[in-house]
Amino acid sequence: MQPTVKQLATVWTALLGFTLVEVGLAYPRLSAVLFLILLLVLSIGKSAMIIGFFMHLKFERRVLTLALFPLLIVFVLVLLALLPDAERLREMRF
Length: 94
Description:
The protein has 94 residues and is mainly α.
């Protein structure tokens, strides 16, 4: 089973919307931790859509899809471990 053109157009539009929200987050003065958490959540959503539709993982067997979840957990834990550095970087700005 392959995605339809309508599905791909919808996903592309959603990805464009996510990207515009991410760019828009750069303008208000948010705390560094909140900014990075929001970017992390949006990036996970974008990557899930890209993997699911453009890499056709949504149309594969569930076992293959479930095999990638441990990698996602490790990825999120590494990014969360780096959040204190983001706060330290904020203090280093002039």
